[in-house]
Amino acid sequence: MRAVLAWKETIRDQCVYDLAFKPDGSQLIIAAGLRVLVYDVADGAIIQPLKGHKDIVYCVAYAKDGKRFASGSADKSIIIWTSKLEGILKYTHNDSIQCVAYNPVTHQLASCSTGDFGLWSPEQKSVNKHKVSSKITCCGWTNDGQYLALGMMNGVVSIRNKNGEEKVKIERPGGSSSPIWSIAWNPSKDEHNDILAVADWGQKLSFYQLSGKQIGKDRTLTYDPCCVSYFSKGEYIVMGGSDKQASLYTKDGVRLGTIGDQNAWVWTCRVKPDSNFVVLGCQDGTIACYQLIFSTVHGLYKDRYAYRDSMTDVIVQHLITEQKVRIKCRELVKKIAIYRNRLAIQLPEKILIYELYSDDSSDMHYRIKEKICRKFECNLLVVCSQHIILCQEKRLQCLSFTSVREKEWVMESLIRYIKVIGGPPGREGLLVGLKNGAILKIFVDNLFPITLMKLSTSVRCLDMSASRNKLAVVDEHNTLLVYDINSEELLFQEPNANSVAWNTQCEDMLCFSGNGYLNIKASNFPVHQQKMQGFMVGYNGSKIFCLHVYSMSAVEVPQSAPMYQYLEKKMFKEAYQIACLGVTDSDWRDLATEALEGLDFDTAKKAFIRIRDLRYLELINSIEERKKRGENDNELFLADVYAYQGKFHEAAKLYKRTGHESRALSMYTDLRMFEYAKEFIGATDPKNSRILMTKQADWAKSSKEPRAAAEMYLSAGEHLKAIDIIGEHGWEDMLIDIARKLDKAEREPLAKCAFYFERLKHHGYASETYSKMGDLQALVQLHVETQHWEEAFSLVEKHPQFKNHVYVPYAQWLAENDRFEEAQKAFHKAGRQNEAVKVLEQLTQNAVVENRFNDAGYYYWMLSMQCLDIARESEDQRDEMLKKFERFQHLAELYHVYRSIQRYTTAVGLTRRRPGSARLCQFKKRLRDEPFSSHMPETLFNICRFLLNNLTKDIPPGISKVNTLYALAKQSRRLGAYKLARYSYEKLQELHIPSRFQESIELGSLTIRSKPFHDSEDLIEGMMCYRCSTNNPLLNNQGSVCINCRQPFIYSASSYEVLPLVQFYLEEGISDEDAVSLIDLEVPHTDQRDARWQDMDNGELQALRMDDGLDDPEEDPFTAKMSFEQGGSTFVPVKVSRSVLRSMSRRDVLIKRWPRPLKWEYFRSLLPDVSITMCPTCFKMFHSEDYELLVLQHNCCPYCRRPIDEPN
């Protein structure tokens, strides 16, 4: 660092107490005598003196925004001045003003006097003043404007907030004997805390945090400080005082040097904003402006650069990895030298030798190896592995790390340049350039320097090539000279050079800088130039190290220009060496391509490996293999190269010249250059033309031009490929055209057309195509898959062999769409009886679970009929299926009758619970949906009895005995069967009763006891057996048979009254056909039409006899054996002979014509006047009026649901 005087002025007989810069640095405000002086900073010319104070002006301060400044005087007043040098405001204190300071943020002015301080801002009219206990000597605001520090005569620093309240109090150890004379806040934005520099007349410099905590120890001064001022970025401090000079310090208080010696105390000093200019004000009226010049102290070795930072630190930078390490020396760094793993730093009183921790090239950790505690004066410093070299004018001294001077060389002229050029440890070589033009090589272990050559002009810069064969010199005329060391021949010279360096990795390359350009020279080729700021100091591979102002940077320079210079001369190997230093990928590709075309396969291979181009590497490998096999036709190799490079016409010509036309044709077709291929083969080869057309179609397909590809395939006769493309893209118009044009014998293309029609959901086209092929099975499958059932059924009518192919999927489709009944019928049609039974069983189970007992009864009936069909068709399963038939018929009837009971009990349960709008709506809806569901009490009474008579064994799922007994109890009471009602209530008590019936049943059980204990006679007479005339009980634990003759009762399937029917059986030898023909004969006697029942009273036994004109009444089987009481457990059926059959009237006989293997059943009506109708499908008996009414309501049989218009 050195200080250069810019200008100097003297104000006679006045002390310069304070000065302040305008924030833009253009003006300087000086407090001198009674006046405020305004100077031009550039040349020190006075602009204007300002008058306004009546006594000495002690202090001035400029606002941060540059709009106004303030001055304070011993006349106790403060004057606010504008930047136009006009006074706009004046206010006073009670004592003389000592210091003023503007808040950098709010522009609030702090003015301090001997006994108080005031805070004024433009927004307020009055000044807020605060008393203090001691005289204020200095003040300063923090960077954020939140706090004001006051330095006082009693050695105290008081830190106040913006309202003047004390927040922190710092007491210096010396107290009033060490008055605080100057303070300053560090303006750096990089510091994490606000740092306050405090200078007192105890000759100490200290640093504090805003909290009052001291940073480090006190720095001892040798003088009384009068002023402290920071540089704009806070990196340095300027101080002046009683030592009559201004000194430069680091921000930590380390003294760096003197700025300027004066003849009197330096009372004030300030740094010009954002510059290196310092202005001093002295007691004798001197004003001096100095410019500080900071020289660059640095050292470079290969990719490590060491330089001075903040005057006391050394930063070592790895130029490749950009890693940095800071070494804090805490003293002024004077010289730096770096070599391999050594680093030497010269301080004012010593030299420090550092070494790297490890040999790793990227290691950046340094440790102290040696300390040489001596003061040295030298111009240049060089470090080697075991020595340091000091350069003093003409003298070179070699010292060991222990400070022993081992050798000394005295030159004949001043040393201008010195550089370590390597060598073994302890025997390194130095390259030395002298002012007189001599260039020497010195080895540290040799006393005798070696003169390499002598120039006529002074040496400015030197470097030796990696092989030590060439020497590059820059002389004082900025001319670059390159010599051969061995012959001292001048190889070439270049103008405009200020520095030079050989490439450490390439013997023939060097670079030099000058006039803002970087110049790269390879061998004897012309220089390649590019713009660059600064000057270069090193050249390693593709990186050039440039120093610009104070920063070193590694510039990546592609070595493209010299590489292309070698390529122009077909010097491929030399070009490859240059490329290895660092070129772009495109340069590598150019090198590889040029070498390949030049048939230098070795260089081309290495270049293609570098850019990882596997395609060309495969080509080179194949050529090398062919060469090993004995091929040596370079024209053929070159043709392959041209083909790879895209030079197809040149390749085709070479192929033709070498007799390989097929290769040219393959090349053109592979590249889809079909027009060129056609030109190449001509029109004389139809086979090749067809192959070409197919390849062209393949290309059109792969290049996303499918329609063109399809047309080309059709032209080439490749129908299948064309159909695939057309089908994939859904062009049905083209597809149907092809299908119609194809012959029906071409089944594979037609089948593929049909397949795509199906995929495109064009059922009609697919059907047409299959019909053309005559593939009926595929046509059936198509109708099934597309669910065109009507077309499928019509096809099955013509071709019954496909019945299973249609009805089974149809049934499955119906089942999937919850149309189970239709599905069952479809399975039945398809002959899949087991599937039909499974569907029905599932339907039945669902109906029972969902309380749809009417459907359950119907499904059980259908199940029974399915079992009958299976029994008829399968001999093996006949017995099992007939048993199932009987069981399912029984269950069908039980669920059919229970439907009414369940409906009744549900309705009663709804009405018995507390009425609610939701339940009422539900009940009304039920009545609205089933308007004919309410039964007469007698019907419900009969149904309950029928069900209980048939529930003697296991109770089927879903049927509730409680509901049945409850309904029976209610209807019995209503019809006068009090005994049966009481029995029902008693039975109910034994069962688990739902809560909804609990109250009703308990009440009914009590109230029924008030009724007589017998049943109505009318009800008992209704249970008379029509065979033996016995009155049966209302409930019979033997089932639905007479207790006397065991004759089963025949019930009406609607009202469940006992019908006047008696079942009879045919005698042996009479077939069903014979029986029907005998019954159908014309009635022989008129008196038979008048036949009537006669009551025969035979003691206690009553019998009914039919007087049908037979000679012997005993022969009538319906009245025979009635003369004695049966009452046994064996049932004696009625068997009839041919004569009896002949005597019967057709209208009195009902026949259940069961399909085989069942036998027909015959019933005779004993009351011919009672009209009875039998359903021809389910064979259930009804009173004719009931049946007609039910058929009108439901349009079908209420039991088997056979539509009335369906033929029997």
UniProtKB/TrEMBL annotation:
The record's section on Gene3D superfamilies has: 1.25.40.470, YVTN repeat-like/Quinoprotein amine dehydrogenase
* Domain named IFT122 zinc ribbon: residues: 1017-1062
Q: Offer a single GO CC term for the protein.
A: non-motile cilium
Q: What InterPro entries is this protein classified in? A: Beta-prop_IFT122_1st, Beta-prop_IFT122_2nd, Ift122/121, TPR_IFT122, WD40/YVTN_repeat-like_dom_sf, WD40_repeat_dom_sf, WD40_rpt, Zn_ribbon_IFT122
Q: What is its main location?
A: cytoplasm
UniProt keyword annotations, A-Z: Cell projection, Cilium, Cilium biogenesis/degradation, Cytoplasm, Cytoskeleton, Developmental protein, Repeat, WD repeat
Superkingdom of source: Eukaryota
Q: Where is the IFT122 second beta-propeller domain?
A: 298-552
One Gene Ontology biological process: establishment of protein localization
All residue ranges annotated as the Intraflagellar transport protein 122 homolog TPR domain in the record: 559-906
Q: Where found, per UniProt? A: Cytoplasm, Cytoskeleton, Cilium basal body
Entry's SMART domains?
Answer: WD40 (SM00320)
Q: Please give the Pfam families that the UniProt record associates with this protein.
A: Beta-prop_IFT122_1st (PF23381), Beta-prop_IFT122_2nd (PF23377), TPR_IFT122 (PF25295), Zn_ribbon_IFT122 (PF25144), Zn_ribbon_IFT122_C (PF25143)
IFT122 first beta-propeller domain span: 2-189, 190-293
Task: Describe where the WD repeats fall, as residue ranges on this chain.
Answer: 50-81
Q: Which SUPFAM superfamilies match?
A: WD40 repeat-like (SSF50978)
Question: What protein name does the entry list?
Answer: Intraflagellar transport protein 122 homolog
Q: Which organism is it from?
A: Sander lucioperca
